[in-house]
Design goal:
The protein is an alpha+beta fold and about 110 residues long. Helix content is about 30%, strand content about 40%. The chain is built from three helices and six strands. A hairpin with a 2-residue loop joins strand 3 and strand 4 (about 50-65). The two termini are about 30 Å apart.
Length: about 110
């Protein structure tokens, strides 16, 4: 039965390459700021930057974390990221399996 009350959050960000995304993912999981990071390679982003239309091939990162870890996750991501203004979008998790949510919470606990 899915758990409908959760502090789990899904954070979206992008990186300029698969290698940069992997470095970010490994660091954020190692530091227990994200329980898991899923890398989606080769997404195409179209955006306006400093008044000009831009297009870039990037790697999308889906970071699974908790509401409690968001401030530290955002600060660390901003410190590590090569972009001047990296994407940091937080989506609430409406529900999920109890076992996955338990694993997520346990993965974020500091020893």
């Amino acid at each position: 039965m899915p758990e409908s009350t959760t502090t789990a959050r899904l954070v979206l960000t992008t990186a300029p390459s698969a290698e940069a995304a992997d470095r970010l993912a490994r660091t954020l999981v190692e530091e227990q700021l994200a329980a898991c990071v899923t890398l989606v390679p080769s997404v195409q982003s179209v955006y306006r930057w400093q008044g000009a239309m831009e297009s870039a091939t990037e790697t999308l990162l889906l970071l699974k974390t908790s509401v409690e870890r968001l401030p530290a996750l955002e600060a660390r991501l901003l410190a590590l990221h090569s972009y001047q203004t990296p994407e940091f979008l937080v989506l609430p998790v409406e529900s999920g399996s109890r076992s996955y949510l338990d694993w997520l919470a346990a993965s974020l606990r500091r020893a």
